Amino acid sequence: MSPFSAPVLGAATVLASSALWQALVDETLSLEVALTRFVVAAVVAWVALSALGALVGSPMASQGGGPANGSGPSTGPGDAGATGTAYDAGQVT
Fold it and tell me: Is residue 7 one of the residues assigned to a domain?
């Protein structure tokens, strides 16, 4: 996962929202401190979401083989679905 992807930046914004509010709205915190907290939150969010993605994995990788990649079960030499030709299905006249 890219550290600049929308989920990472969104999570960092949520994590650092208090500091950002104090710096931009209340002006009780310096902007440098708020941005430092945002960068730290972005790194934490990136590591956490990358670890979660590695644990969960993508749906296609976890399914393994199947008809979509050509490694599905074979139903026999006369199966028209295997190659899609009439000759293989025994329908040649």
Answer: no
* Count of structural domains within the chain: 1
In a domain, residue 65? The reply is: no
**Distance between CA atoms of residues 87 and 78, nearest Å:** 9
Find how far residue 67's CA is from the centre of its chain.
Answer: 23
Identity (one letter) of the amino acid at 13?
A: T
Is 85 contained in some domain? no
In terms of pTM, does the model score above 0.90? no
Phi, psi of 58 (to 5 degrees): -85, 150
Give domain status of residue 66, yes or no: no
Counting residues of the chain whose pLDDT is more than 90, the rounded percentage is 58
**Three-class SS string for 5-68?**
CHHHHHHHHHHCHHHHHHHHHHCCCCHHHHHHHHHHHHHHHHHHHHHHHHHHCCHHHHHCCCHH
